[in-house]
């Protein structure tokens, strides 16, 4: 059982003057308002933590919300949402709603004055809780007990919630590593499997967002394995290798900057790379990095010259990503990989000391031979273990030019 706060009366984000001002103004306009969703859930787990994402539900219509506060922006009027700025805080204020029509991607909503009706349209019980200005918790569907016990449950029948929005399938897997702590009931597993075909109707951007947020979590591997078991994963990442991902996550936990792309590549290597890149609508930069990690040869980790050249040509972060995948492929443990990684992180190749200007100053004419000569010089510099002395490289250039002249004269 996780320990939870009795209420949120001491939560700093609720006690903040900006929050008090917002609630007072909505009440003065004749409305009722409560904080809802993630801030309530996370506040119960860590009541003294500051929380940035603050969502408010109110009985006021959007136009009344905008009239009640000074700085409000109509960021989602079709769904009754107004962004309110007060002091240093930003609040998403949404009119209480109920779903009238849902087609698995979009919902047509109508406004209501009933907080329980609004809670009933949310995805999971732990996200359906709300609190008033005093910090009192309103929990219509057992979310508090689920949060304490590590259960991730849909509000009501899982099939119905998924049919309303198929993205909830991916949200389930994203939330499970954070809030799940035990077995998932069979009805939920069946619903996830049965609803998977609706994923085909979701945009690549939405799929990418949910998948990347899952992959960034340190506990992502069991959730991704469960996605594979329920046949959900093949709708997004065909030919995935969940075993390689599991091994990778044990190695790369503190390399957070590119975690999602690196872990996606660990899943994809040997699978349908280009199809997945297109399906997820990856940015050009992410797509290029995925291709590099999926299609590059994997030198043995004891092949230090190859890894040094990878650092020089691709940069240390990309080379380390590739080394992580190589270690996962080889089944290395964290201690063994740590020794290899330390050597890679300590190596600094510097900058190749010659440029085209050096060749021009020595009278080398433009043409195919110009670039080939520069590449040969760079290759020699790499093979000599990246010496920093520019004078050595210049002497090598002069020697090559004399040899070339000698060869030309000998043919006359």
SSE layout and pairings?
Blueprint: H1 12-15, H2 17-28, E1 33-36, H3 38-45, E2 54-58, H4 62-68, E3 72-76, E4 81-86, E5 89-95, E6 97-102, E7 107-111, H5 115-120, E8 130-131, E9 137-138, H6 143-149, H7 158-164, H8 167-179, H9 186-194, H10 204-215, H11 220-229, H12 242-249, H13 259-268, H14 273-280, H15 284-295, H16 304-314, H17 316-330, H18 334-346, H19 356-361, H20 368-383, H21 390-410
Parallel strand pairs: 2-5
Antiparallel strand pairs: 1-2, 1-8, 3-4, 4-5, 6-7, 8-9
Helix pairs in contact: 8-10, 8-11, 10-13, 11-12, 12-13, 12-17, 13-15, 16-17, 17-18
Describe the structure.
The chain has 412 residues and is an alpha+beta fold. Among the domains are: 1-149, Beta Polymerase, domain 2 (2-Layer Sandwich); 296-346, no CATH class; 356-410, no CATH class. It has 21 helices and nine strands. The strands form two sheets. It has a seven-stranded mixed beta sheet. The longest helix is centred in the C-terminal third of the chain and has 21 residues, at 390-410. The protein is elongated, with a radius of gyration of 29 Å. The termini are far apart. Residues 408-412 have low confidence and may be disordered.
